[in-house]
C-alpha cells in the first residue's frame, strides 16, 4: 500500500495539515503536497477508470505528463473537469470527484467493456458504426457518449467566479524551464547584460536534479541550485516566475506563458490565471525530459509507476508507493529509484534489467545494498487488477514464459528518457533520432528560423539530449551565453561549471516486453493510458495500411487525449516502425502543437468577460434612450434604439406609433452613428469622382448630393450624402457600418494607388451627435428654437448651412431618408444630449416623439430607398437596384466602372429591384424566395427572386416589401409566389418600389 | 457651452492597484500635413507649444502635440480653445495642403496612476512598458484590449489614455478590471 513515510519530504517538511474531499471522503494532506502525493499518502492507488474499457487506473507520473489522474474539481460555479492531480497543489478544502465511472469508482458497470475488448479494436467505431447511417446519430453516438468521455462539462447555468487577465511582456532572452539547466542558462544569459525571463511550471526551482543527485563545482546539486536561485534573484535584469508554463512558441519570438496565480490559494483575492503574451529575441527551452513507460502486459495496473515518479514521491513528498517495489528498466537511471527506496528502509525485491549486459556503476551500488538484480529479464505480466500484487518474471528475449512470480505492491518502470522537444518543435524546429540514447532530440542545425533566417530558439540540458549532469550543466551554460549574445548581450567571462562525471551503461531500446510477447500479452500492454490504446491496436493499424504516423495516430487515437501522448508517442511510433519494418526516424513523429499542456479557457479569454466581454459603442444619447424605453438593437458594435417603448406598449405597437407620428407630426432620430469623413485637398474632387459612381467634383459649395460607392469589382459597398464644405473640402456621410471600412478604403487607395494625389481624410464620425428632425412639423420646432433661417428659401432641399439653433452650434443638412420634410442636424457630441433634450422639450407642442431604427427602415422602404446590407449583400450592383441614374456616363473612370462591363454584370437576366405587394396584405418573411416550376441541376426548386426588405406599414395598414426578381421591372403587375417554411404560400404582386409620395413633394417643402 | 459633457463625466475608480479617472473634455485637433514643412512646424509650435519627434509627444503646460503618423499630429489644447485653434491653423497654413479637424468631442481621456500604473497598462496594450522602454515623452498609437487607444506618460507613475468617445465606458471598465485588487504583476 502507498503511505506517508516518517522520513518526510523536501516540499512537505513543516507543512500544515490540510483536509480535502475525494468522492465525498474526507482525506488529510500536508501543505506542499500535490493532489497526487496527498492521494497516494492516503493509499488511494486507484484514481479513475480508463476511457474505453473502464479499467482501474492509478497515478503513473509526477508531473504534467500524467495521463490517468484527472479529476472533476470544485462544486458548481467553480467546477472544472480534467484537473491533473500531479500538477494541482493541495489546498485546504479542495474538492474532487473521480471521472469516467458509473455508478462508482470501485464498482463500475462500464468495466464490462474490458471483457469485450476483443471486439473493440482500433478503428472499431469507424468500422462498426458507419452503417446504417441513421443508427449512428440515434443509437451508437448516445451510447458511446454515455459510456465514454472523461470529465463532465460544466453546467450551462454555472458561472466561473474567477477573473483572468493577459499581460504583455518583452524580453531579450526567455528561458523556459527552471530546472538546473534552465537556471544555469538564465544565469549565463544574464551575465551578458540582457533582460532575461525565466519561467518554471511548478512551484519549485531545480527540477529533477535535487532528487536525482550529483555534484556541480564540488557542491551537492541541490545546494548548487539554491545558490543559483539566490544569485539570479539578486540580478536586476532577471525576472523569475514559478507556476508559469511556457505554453507555446510562435513566429517572431512570440511565446505564451501560462501563470497560475491562485490555483494553490483560491481564497486570495485577485486574478486566477494570467496569460503572458511575450516577445523574446531569443528563447532557450530547458524543458527537461520525460521518462517513458515500458510496454509489458498489465503495465496499467494501479501501482505501476514511472521509476522517476516513484523517486519523486519518496524524496519530495515522503510518500512511498509500496512497501515492496520491483524496478524494471532498460537503463541505469532507474537504479536510482531502487537505491533511494532502499535508503528509506523500503524493500526492493528485484531490479529487472532488460539489458543482457545490465547496468554500470549504479547497478554495482544497488547490488552492494543487497538488491537482487536480474539482467536480460522482463516482466511477462503484472498480477492484480485494482492494485499490483506481483509480477511474473520472464526472459526479455523470449515469449513470456513465467520463470517465477515475484510478490510486490508496486512496480517502478523506466523505458528511458525522451527530451521534451515540444516548444522547440512548435515553430518548426527539427529533430534527429539519437541511436545511442534511443530518443528524438533537437537538431541544432535546424532550429526555428526568425525573420533574419537565424534561429531564435535554442535548447539546453536534458531537453537537448544531455541526460548526465556533467554534460548538461555545461551545455546549459553555453546555450545561455549564446542566447544572450544573439540577443545583443556582451561577451561575458564566466567559468563554466563542472559536474561530477558519472559512468552509466547506455540505454537499450525495449519497445515490447518480452520481445516476443504473443497477442494475449500484447492486448493487455498499454501504450496510451488515457485513450486506451494498446500495442496490438497500433500493430493492427499498421496491418490495415495506416502507414503514416499521423494516420495511425488518428485511427488508433494514440496521443490524442488531454495528455497529447506525452508518455505514449515515442513508444507508439516505435511499435509502428517495428510493425512496418522500418527505422524509427523514417516513421517520424506526429506534429507538436501548443499549448504544451491544456491551459484554461479563462486565461485565453483574459479580461474579456462580463461588462468588458466586448466593447459596446454608445452615442451621446445612449443613457437618455435607455431611460426612455429603448429596445436596443446591435448595429455592429453600436447599440441603437430599435424603438422607444412607452409603458404598456409592445415593440410592434411602438413601431407603428412612431411610423405614424413621424409621417403626421414630428419624429426625432439619433443618427449619430452615421459615418462622417472629411476629405480635403486640391485633388479631393478628383478623388471622390473615382470613389463614387456619380459625379462629385461638380457639387457646389453649400449643396448635398447622394452618392454610391462600388468596390473595384463593381459591387455596391456603401452609399450616403456628400456635402461640399468649401472648394477643397467635402464631408462624406457613410452608412453606420461603413464609417471605419470606407475610411480604410479611402486611405488604402490614397496610400497605395494615388499616393501622389493631394488629399487628406479624417474620420470625424464621433465628433458630432447627429439628430434627424423629421415630419411635417420639423421646421416649426427649429423655428421655435430659433437662431438660423431654416425656411425653404434659405435652406432648400439638398442644401446645408452652418449656424446656431437654440444656442447650439449646428450644421444643418436638408436631406431626407424618410420622404418627409427633414433636417439632419450635427452638433458637437458633448452637447448632443442637451440639444436632444431641447428638441424634445420644444417639440412637445408639435407632437415630437423619438423613433428608432425600425421606423427609419419602414419610412425609407415606403419611399423605395435602398439600404446597404438589405438590398445589397456583396453581390448586388447599382444596375440591379435601378440606380443607373447614379452611374456617371461623363466620367472616364470610377471604381467599378470596368467591372460593370463584364458579361455577367451586363446580363439582362439579373435579378432586379421591385416592390412587392402581398395579395392578402400580410407581411412577407425576410429572405423568402420566389419559386417557379422545375428543379435546377442540384435538384433544388427553381428560384427567380428573393425578398430583401419587408415590413408592416402602419401608414398603409399592410405589409410592404422590396425584393430582387429576375426581369422584375418588366413584370409589373405579375403575381408571384413565395413559399414559407410552414409549407404555405404567400402571393405578392410586383409593383413599383416607391409607394409613398412618388413625386417627392413632401420632402421638398 | 456650459451643457457640454464628456462621455463619463469624470468617473473614477480607486479600489485597486491603480487609480483610474476620466479627465473630462479636452481640446484635440487632428492635423494632417507635411510634418517637415516649416510653415506647419511654426503653426504647430504656435498653438501647441512644441513640435514632437517621431513616436513622441511634446507637452507644454495644458497644450501638447503628439506624433500620430508620418503625416498626422494630434494637437491638444483646452477644450474651449479647440475651434479657435482650428481657425488659427486654417489661416496660418492657408495655401498649403493640410487638413485640420476638431476631434475634441470624438474622444474620451483617462488617467491611470499609481505605482502599479505600468502593470495595468501592460495588461491591455501590446507595448513594452518597462521603465527603460517606455518613458516620459513617448507616445504610442496602439490598442487596449479590443479598441484603438493612444497613450503617453503624464508623470513618473501616471499615464494618459485617449480612446473614442463611444467606447469610453468600455475603456473605463477595462482599466478598472485591469486594476483590480491583488493583480499586481511586479515585474517593473
TrEMBL record, chain A:
Gene3D superfamilies: 2Fe-2S iron-sulphur cluster binding domain, sarcosine oxidase, alpha subunit, N-terminal domain (3.10.20.440), FAD/NAD(P)-binding domain (3.50.50.60), Probable tRNA modification gtpase trme, domain 1 (3.30.1360.120)
Keyword Oxidoreductase among record annotations: yes
Domain called GCVT N-terminal: residue spans: 621-891
EC number: 1.5.3.1
Keyword Oxidoreductase tagged: yes
SUPFAM superfamilies on file: Aminomethyltransferase beta-barrel domain (SSF101790), FAD/NAD(P)-binding domain (SSF51905), Folate-binding domain (SSF103025)
Assigned keywords, A-Z: Oxidoreductase
An individual GO BP term: tetrahydrofolate metabolic process
GO molecular function: sarcosine oxidase activity
Stretches assigned to the Aminomethyltransferase C-terminal domain: 912-997
Ranges for domain SoxA A3: 523-605
Family: Belongs to the GcvT family.
PANTHER family named in the record: AMINOMETHYLTRANSFERASE, AMINOMETHYLTRANSFERASE, MITOCHONDRIAL
Entry protein name: Sarcosine oxidase subunit alpha
From TrEMBL, chain B:
GO MF annotation list: sarcosine oxidase activity
Transmembrane segments: none
Alphabetical UniProt keywords: Oxidoreductase
Stored SUPFAM superfamilies: Folate-binding domain (SSF103025)
A Pfam family reported for this protein in Swiss-Prot or TrEMBL: SoxG
InterPro entries the UniProt entry points to: SoxG, TrmE/GcvT-like
Group of enzyme by EC: oxidoreductase
EC number: 1.5.3.1
The protein, known as: Sarcosine oxidase subunit gamma
Amino acid at each position: 500500500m502507498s503511505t506517508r513515510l516518517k522520513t518526510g519530504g523536501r516540499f512537505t517538511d513543516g507543512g500544515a495539515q490540510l483536509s480535502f474531499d475525494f468522492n465525498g471522503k474526507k482525506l488529510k494532506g500536508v501543505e506542499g503536497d500535490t493532489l497526487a502525493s496527498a492521494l497516494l499518502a492516503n493509499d488511494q492507488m486507484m484514481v479513475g477508470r480508463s476511457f474505453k474499457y473502464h479499467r482501474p487506473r492509478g497515478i503513473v507520473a509526477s508531473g504534467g505528463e500524467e495521463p490517468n489522474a484527472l479529476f472533476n474539481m470544485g462544486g458548481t460555479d467553480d467546477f472544472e473537469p480534467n484537473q491533473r492531480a500531479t500538477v494541482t497543489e493541495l489546498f485546504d478544502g479542495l474538492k474532487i470527484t473521480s471521472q469516467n465511472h458509473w455508478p462508482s469508482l470501485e464498482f463500475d458497470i462500464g468495466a464490462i467493456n474490458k471483457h469485450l475488448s476483443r471486439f473493440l479494436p482500433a478503428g472499431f467505431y469507424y468500422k462498426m458504426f458507419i452503417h446504417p447511417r441513421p443508427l449512428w446519430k440515434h443509437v451508437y453516438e448516445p451510447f458511446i457518449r454515455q459510456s465514454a468521455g472523461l470529465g463532465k462539462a460544466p453546467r450551462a447555468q454555472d458561472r466561473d467566479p474567477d477573473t483572468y487577465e493577459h499581460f504583455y511582456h518583452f524580453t531579450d532572452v526567455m528561458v523556459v524551464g527552471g530546472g538546473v539547466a534552465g537556471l544555469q542558462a538564465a544565469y549565463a544569459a544574464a551575465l551578458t547584460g540582457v533582460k532575461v525571463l525565466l519561467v518554471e511550471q511548478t512551484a519549485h526551482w531545480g527540477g529533477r536534479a535535487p532528487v536525482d543527485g550529483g555534484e556541480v563545482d564540488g557542491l551537492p546539486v541541490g545546494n548548487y541550485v539554491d545558490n543559483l536561485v539566490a544569485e539570479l534573484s539578486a540580478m536586476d535584469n532577471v525576472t523569475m516566475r514559478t507556476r508559469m508554463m511556457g505554453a507555446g512558441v510562435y513566429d517572431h519570438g512570440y511565446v505564451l506563458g501560462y501563470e497560475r496565480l491562485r490555483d494553490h490559494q483560491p481564497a486570495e483575492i485577485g486574478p486566477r490565471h494570467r496569460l503572458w503574451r511575450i516577445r523574446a529575441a531569443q528563447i532557450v527551452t530547458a524543458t527537461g525530459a520525460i521518462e517513458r513507460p515500458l510496454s509489458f502486459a498489465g503495465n496499467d495496473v494501479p501501482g505501476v509507476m514511472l521509476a522517476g515518479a516513484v523517486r519523486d514521491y519518496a524524496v519530495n513528498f515522503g510518500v512511498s508507493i509500496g512497501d515492496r517495489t520491483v524496478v524494471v528498466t532498460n537503463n541505469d537511471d532507474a537504479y536510482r529509484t531502487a537505491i533511494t527506496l532502499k535508503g528509506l528502509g523500503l524493500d526492493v525485491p528485484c531490479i529487472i534489467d532488460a539489458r543482457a549486459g545490465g547496468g554500470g556503476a549504479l547497478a554495482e551500488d544497488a547490488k552492494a545494498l543487497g538488491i537482487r538484480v536480474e539482467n536480460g529479464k522482463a516482466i511477462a505480466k503484472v498480477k492484480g487488477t485494482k492494485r499490483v500484487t506481483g509480477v511474473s518474471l520472464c526472459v526479455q528475449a523470449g515469449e513470456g514464459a513465467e520463470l517465477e512470480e515475484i510478490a510486490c505492491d508496486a512496480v517502478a518502470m523506466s523505458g528511458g528518457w525522451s527530451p521534451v522537444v515540444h516548444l522547440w518543435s512548435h515553430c518548426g524546429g527539427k529533430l534527429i533520432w539519437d541511436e545511442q540514447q534511443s530518443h528524438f532530440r533537437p537538431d541544432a542545425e535546424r532550429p526555428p528560423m526568425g525573420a533574419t533566417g537565424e534561429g531564435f530558439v535554442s535548447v539546453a540540458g536534458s531537453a537537448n539530449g544531455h541526460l548526465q549532469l556533467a554534460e548538461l550543466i555545461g551545455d546549459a551554460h553555453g546555450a545561455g551565453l549564446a542566447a544572450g549574445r544573439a540577443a545583443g548581450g556582451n561577451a561575458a567571462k564566466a567559468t563554466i561549471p563542472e559536474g561530477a562525471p558519472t559512468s552509466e551503461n547506455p540505454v537499450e531500446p525495449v519497445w515490447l516486453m518480452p520481445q516476443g510477447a504473443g497477442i494475449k500479452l500484447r492486448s493487455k500492454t498499454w501504450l496510451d493510458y488515457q485513450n486506451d490504446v494498446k500495442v496490438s491496436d497500433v500493430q493492427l493499424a499498421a496491418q490495415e495500411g495506416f502507414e503514416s504516423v499521423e494516420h495511425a495516430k488518428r485511427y488508433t487515437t494514440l496521443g490524442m487525449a488531454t495528455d497529447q501522448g506525452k508518455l505514449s508517442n515515442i513508444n507508439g511510433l516505435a511499435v509502428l516502425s517495428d510493425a512496418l519494418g522500418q527505422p524509427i526516424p523514417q516513421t517520424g513523429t506526429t506534429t507538436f502543437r501548443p499549448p504544451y499542456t491544456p491551459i484554461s479557457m479563462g486565461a485565453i479569454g483574459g479580461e474579456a468577460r462580463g461588462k468588458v466581454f466586448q466593447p459596446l459603442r454608445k452615442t451621446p444619447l445612449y443613457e437618455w434612450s435607455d431611460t426612455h424605453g429603448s429596445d436596443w438593437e446591435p448595429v455592429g458594435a453600436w447599440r441603437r434604439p430599435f424603438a422607444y417603448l412607452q409603458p404598456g406598449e409592445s415593440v410592434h405597437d411602438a413601431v407603428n406609433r412612431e411610423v405614424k407620428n413621424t409621417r403626421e407630426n414630428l419624429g426625432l432620430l439619433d443618427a449619430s452613428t452615421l459615418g462622417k469623413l472629411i476629405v480635403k485637398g486640391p485633388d479631393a474632387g478628383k478623388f471622390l469622382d473615382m470613389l463614387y459612381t456619380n459625379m462629385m467634383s461638380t457639387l457646389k459649395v453649400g449643396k448635398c448630393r447622394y452618392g454610391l460607392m462600388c468596390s473595384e469589382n463593381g459591387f455596391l459597398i456603401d452609399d450616403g450624402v456628400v456635402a461640399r464644405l468649401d472648394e477643397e473640402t467635402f464631408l462624406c456621410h457613410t452608412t453606420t457600418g461603413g464609417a471605419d471600412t470606407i475610411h480604410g478604403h479611402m486611405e488604402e487607395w490614397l496610400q497605395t494607388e494615388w499616393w501622389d494625389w493631394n488629399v487628406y481624410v479624417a474620420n470625424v464620425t464621433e465628433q458630432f451627435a447627429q439628430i434627424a428632425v423629421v415630419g411635417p412639423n420639423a421646421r416649426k420646432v427649429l423655428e421655435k428654437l430659433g437662431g438660423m433661417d431654416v425656411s425653404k428659401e434659405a435652406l432648400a432641399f439638398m442644401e446645408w448651412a452652418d449656424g446656431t439653433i437654440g444656442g447650439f452650434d449646428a450644421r444643418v443638412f436638408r436631406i431626407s431618408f424618410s420622404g418627409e420634410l427633414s433636417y439632419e442636424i450635427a452638433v458637437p457630441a458633448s452637447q448632443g444630449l442637451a440639444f436632444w433634450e431641447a428638441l424634445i422639450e420644444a417639440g412637445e407642442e408639435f407632437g415630437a416623439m423619438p423613433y428608432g431604427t425600425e421606423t427609419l427602415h419602414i419610412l425609407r422602404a415606403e419611399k423605395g430607398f435602398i439600404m446597404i446590407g438589405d438590398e445589397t449583400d456583396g453581390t448586388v450592383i447599382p444596375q440591379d437596384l435601378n440606380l443607373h441614374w447614379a452611374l456617371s456616363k461623363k466620367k472616364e473612370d470610377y471604381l467599378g466602372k470596368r467591372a460593370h462591363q463584364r458579361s455577367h454584370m451586363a446580363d439582362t437576366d439579373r435579378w432586379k429591384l421591385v416592390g412587392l405587394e402581398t395579395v392578402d396584405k400580410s407581411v412577407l418573411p425576410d429572405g423568402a424566395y420566389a419559386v417557379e416550376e422545375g428543379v435546377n441541376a442540384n435538384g433544388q426548386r427553381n428560384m427567380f427572386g428573393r425578398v430583401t426588405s419587408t415590413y408592416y406599414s402602419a401608414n398603409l395598414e399592410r405589409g410592404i416589401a422590396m425584393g430582387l426578381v429576375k426581369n422584375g421591372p418588366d413584370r409589373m403587375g405579375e403575381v408571384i409566389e413565395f413559399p414559407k417554411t410552414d409549407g404555405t404560400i404567400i402571393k405578392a404582386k410586383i409593383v413599383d418600389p416607391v409607394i409613398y409620395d412618388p413625386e417627392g413633394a413632401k420632402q421638398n417643402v | 457651452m456650459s451643457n457640454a459633457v464628456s462621455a463619463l463625466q469624470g468617473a473614477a475608480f480607486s479600489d485597486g492597484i491603480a487609480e483610474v479617472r476620466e479627465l473630462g473634455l479636452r481640446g484635440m485637433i487632428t492635423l494632417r500635413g507635411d510634418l517637415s514643412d516649416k510653415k506647419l512646424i511654426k503653426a504647430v509650435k504656435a498653438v501647441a507649444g512644441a513640435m514632437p519627434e517621431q513616436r513622441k509627444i511634446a507637452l507644454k503646460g495644458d497644450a501638447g502635440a503628439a506624433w500620430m503618423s508620418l503625416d498626422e499630429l494630434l494637437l491638444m489644447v483646452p477644450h474651449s480653445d479647440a475651434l479657435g485653434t482650428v481657425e488659427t491653423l486654417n489661416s496660418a497654413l492657408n495655401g498649403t495642403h493640410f487638413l485640420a479637424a476638431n476631434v475634441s468631442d470624438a474622444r474620451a481621456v483617462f488617467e491611470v496612476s499609481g505605482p502599479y500604473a505600468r502593470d495595468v497598462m501592460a495588461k491591455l496594450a501590446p507595448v513594452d512598458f518597462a521603465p527603460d522602454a517606455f518613458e516620459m515623452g513617448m507616445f504610442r498609437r496602439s490598442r487596449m484590449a479590443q479598441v484603438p487607444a493612444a497613450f503617453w506618460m503624464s508623470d513618473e507613475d501616471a499615464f494618459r489614455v485617449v480612446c473614442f468617445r463611444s467606447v469610453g465606458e468600455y475603456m473605463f471598465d477595462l482599466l478598472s478590471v485591469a486594476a483590480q485588487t491583488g493583480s499586481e504583476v511586479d515585474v517593473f
